[in-house]
Write a structure and sequence with these properties.
292 residues, alpha/beta, Arc Repressor Mutant, subunit A, D-Maltodextrin-Binding Protein, domain 2, 3 domains, five-stranded mixed β-sheet, elongated
């Protein structure tokens, strides 16, 4: 039958090793000298080994004690981390994360899952809104962290990754071959003005086939092959593909996914930001192309 080590006795053992004696360790632990001695004796009895060499005037560790010390430190560190994460009141409450609709997948679900595992007492409110609206909310202090899609990075933000902005259409679709080119955009899409300017500069005749305030309306129209749209690499709807247009459509400027943190000194916000950094550091799969 498995036996369990006494963490209280292990803490006394580590304190004695660090302090160099039972008396000083008892003072550090706010215990009596006899209580610490009893815990050490109980620990030695449970392991059936001598952990301390008491033959000299000062206490030293035996070889078995030296071997145990590293394990004891690791066990106590894990114990203290668990208690801090699960019971600390500073990790209770709500944290608000703002993310544009088109970059929720594939990274954000992994971020939310990891944060919930590490901070089970924290509630995450996920706010989906266009980048411009998220930046306005952030400036008013209404969200704790935001992810944005921008060609550059604003003051106080940090670029996580630069991704190509790609032309996308329905799987097997032909809307991109039409003249004038049917395009679909949300009225608040931050890519809209730059993409339309690129079309004008390249002298590509186009018309706004879908002009909606709803991302779902744009996705549905593009998926139905009624228009084309743009998306960051790896962020396409499952019913759309990257168009391999062979130069028929103008190249688009790459975009950053940026992170802004309202209060970097807040431990929960800092932990969320670190998880976001780690998740975006994972390599992303190459996009599938819709060829002519």
């Amino acid at each position: 039958m498995p036996r369990n080590l006494d963490l209280t006795a292990l803490r006394s053992f580590v304190s004695v090793a660090d302090a160099g004696g039972v008396t000083r360790a008892a003072g550090m632990l706010n215990l009596t000298q006899s209580a610490v001695s009893m815990q050490l004796k109980r620990l030695e009895d449970s392991l059936d080994v001598a952990l301390l060499d008491r033959s000299a005037r000062t206490i030293s560790l035996t070889p078995a004690g030296e071997q145990l010390l590293g394990y004891a430190r690791s066990m106590l560190k894990t114990n203290d981390e668990i208690l801090e994460r699960l019971t600390a009141t500073e990790f209770e409450g709500e944290i608000k994360l703002g993310v544009p609709h088109d970059i929720i997948y594939p990274v954000v679900p992994a971020v939310l899952k990891r944060f919930a595992a590490d901070f089970p007492r924290m509630h995450v409110r996920l706010i989906s809104a266009p980048t411009r609206r998220l930046l306005e909310m952030f400036s008013r202090g209404e969200v704790d962290l935001i992810l944005t899609t921008e060609e550059d990075c604003g003051q106080g933000g940090k670029a996580l990754v630069e991704l190509p902005l790609l032309w996308v259409g329905a799987k097997g679709g032909a809307a991109w071959r039409k003249t004038p080119l049917p395009v679909a955009f949300c009225s608040n899409c931050i890519f809209r003005s730059g993409v339309l300017q690129a079309l004008n500069t390249a002298e590509v005749d186009w018309f706004m086939a879908v002009d909606s305030e709803l991302d779902n309306a744009v996705e549905a129209s593009v998926s139905a092959d009624l228009a084309v749209h743009v998306a960051l690499e790896g962020s396409m709807s499952p019913l759309t593909e990257v168009i391999d247009h062979g130069g028929r459509l103008p190249p688009l400027a790459p975009q950053n996914i940026n992170l802004y943190v309202l209060k970097p000194e807040d431990r929960a916000s800092a932990a969320m930001a670190e998880i976001i950094h780690q998740c975006y550091a994972v390599p992303r799969a190459a996009p599938q192309l819709l060829t002519a």
